[in-house]
Amino acid sequence: MLLPQRLHAVIHLQCSKRPAGAGQWRMTRNTLVSTESTRRPKATPAALVTLATALALAGCAAPANGSGPAQASNRAPAPAPATAATPAAAVPSPPQPGASPLAPTAAQAAALAKGSDADHIAGFAVWNSAFQSQALQAGIRPDTVRNVLATAQWQPRVVELDRAQPEFTRTPWAYLDSAVSPQRVAQGQAKLAEHSAALQSASARYGVPATVITAIWGMESNYGSNFGTFRTVDALATLAFEGRRRAWAQNELLAALRIIDQGDIAADRMIGSWAGAMGHTQFLPSVFLRHAVDADGDGHRDIWGSAPDVAASTAAFLVGEGWRRGESWGTEVQLPAGFDHARTELSVRQSAVQWAAEGVQTMDGRPLPALEAASILAPAGARGPAFLVGHNFRTLLRYNNAVTYALGVAQLSQQIDGGAPIIAAWPRDLPALSRDEVLALQVALNERGFDTGTPDGVLGPATRAGLRRYQQSEGLVADGYATADLLARLRGAATPAAPGTAPTAAPAR
Ligand SMILES: [Ca+2]
Description:
Elements: E1 9-17, E2 25-33, H1 45-58, H2 106-113, H3 117-137, H4 142-149, H5 156-163, H6 172-179, H7 182-194, H8 196-206, H9 210-221, E3 230-231, H10 232-242, H11 246-261, E4 271-272, H12 285-291, H13 307-320, E5 330-334, H14 352-357, E6 361-362, E7 375-377, E8 386-389, H15 391-399, H16 403-416, H17 435-447, H18 461-473, H19 484-490
Antiparallel strand pairs: 1-2, 3-4, 5-6, 5-8, 7-8
Helix pairs in contact: 1-3, 3-4, 3-10, 5-10, 6-16, 7-9, 7-16, 8-9, 8-13, 9-13, 9-16, 10-11, 11-12, 12-13, 15-16, 17-19
The site of calcium ion has 8 residues, from loops.
């Protein structure tokens, strides 16, 4: 990994269990020092000039350095713990209205972002100084503002990663091959045995199977081997200054400072992903405040080093989002001939009994699980596997709102438990579409009157809906799965008899 010029320290964490079954991980830290040794940017004359420019850009009154403690008596009541619009733990929530008047606007931050590293650091210092006042007003302790927020660092790598867009979409099978590899299943079984006491205790307390907790742990951080190397405060402060999701990031940053105030974790151990997701379970700070649990009774909610806390916090999150004890996530199913694939959406719900009456069956002939509001999903379209999913599957989506993610947790937990992998074959002959191809598909559908919303290169419900209407108009199976054939057909380049697209191929799809 390349070290950005001003990334002074990369903190590498390794967790290894103590030998005596204490249920605690020992955390070791290796600090790699790069080009500079101090955490604060030096105020060179050039930097001071750009600082003045940035001040003007940001429309700020000159902030007094170290103004934090002086304003401590001027606290407003602390707001309620940050409430992200989407409490998914691993995925940043959408932007929220109500930006701080103290922060630079998105346009100003964008202007700064085009500048040099010195511009970034100077602008970041301006933003930080202004935000220190806001943090104090929000009730963050002056010591924390001075020692943690004021020493936060601009991390250019965070911005790079935030702006990175993959060139290609990922097919469901490519994602699941990696997320639910035999190695990860075997490792999950070993982790389940190793941390049996912590996982079973959380399971008994919250009613979430230990295999599901283990699977989430595997999906989120590969069982703690990779939960990110960014200081959460640095990552969120960078995102807050950078501006694309400023209100959201400021909210999460305040939540992170509040966690430090509460003494759950020291700032230098508050480590996670570039996007602010922390520790083994990749909780955002606002999610931590709502759901993290001190299960080992040491007085700290520690999702970085305590197996009992990690297991209980994960289960508590799911229960808080509605997980039902004893209910299955769902199962792989066979669909009857002539099944209307336009109905394979989470929004189409009926009881498993009703689905069974339509001819939906399990793969092994056993009865469908008893689910009330269940949906049929076919993430790779009519040629791929289909699943009946219920309420607890939708709860998994609260962790990360992607069907393939929830399917990954479901499959990993099932296989850790000794269950079978997915039986039906994926349509592996279909190539992944590039982002440009998805964009072209969206534009073409819109032009033909099959509305997909604003073209964004991302396959979502609106694109599937537009695609399904197009497929129906052409007499095709309306599965809403985007393929190169469909794009070619939309462009008028497809031959009507192309395999997999012609109406006569419907039974095979
Ligand atoms: Ca604890």
